[in-house]
Amino acid sequence: ASILGNWAAEMEKFAPDLKTIIAHQSAIPSTELKALGKERVVDADLVITSYGSLIRLPWLEETSWQMVILDEAQVIKNPGAKQSKAAKKLKGRVRIVLTGTPVENKLGDLWSIFDFLNPGLLGSAREFTEYTKRAAGRPQNPYGPLRELVRPYILRRMKTDKSVIADLPDKTEVKAYCQMSRKQVALYQ
To answer: What is the pLDDT of residues 61-78, one digit of tens each?
Structure first.
């Protein structure tokens, strides 16, 4: 939810002619949001929402989208989580994921992202786990075959690339000082 405003600003900057709907309770009252439905968003070029809204708004799953893009896709790294299951139920002719950390904790994170992106490419979760365990035991380049399999689906941009740095906005820092209660001060000490 924290990046909804950023995406809206990017759309206003780079594609102001697109009809954009922010399907989130921070932008639309809850009753109106639930009433949106797939029939009412058909005229929109872009619908921006959060992972949490995927669970609360069934019409998102019922709609057939031209394209589904998941930003911060590491959020669906746990295939058993409700939001992961909800994201994987989205119907899209084209699916794209954006993430700076496709593997956050374990290789299973990558499997879950690919289960959304290209279901079946990496096998079932069990098959993938067995494969990676066998690969870990190989003496030379154990994950080379996996790397080659996913390479066509990954565009990796490095901060060291001058064109990437030129596109990044300046970092914004906001310091917020909050007074602690006496109990908090005691616990802190």
So the answer is: 999 999 999 999 999 999
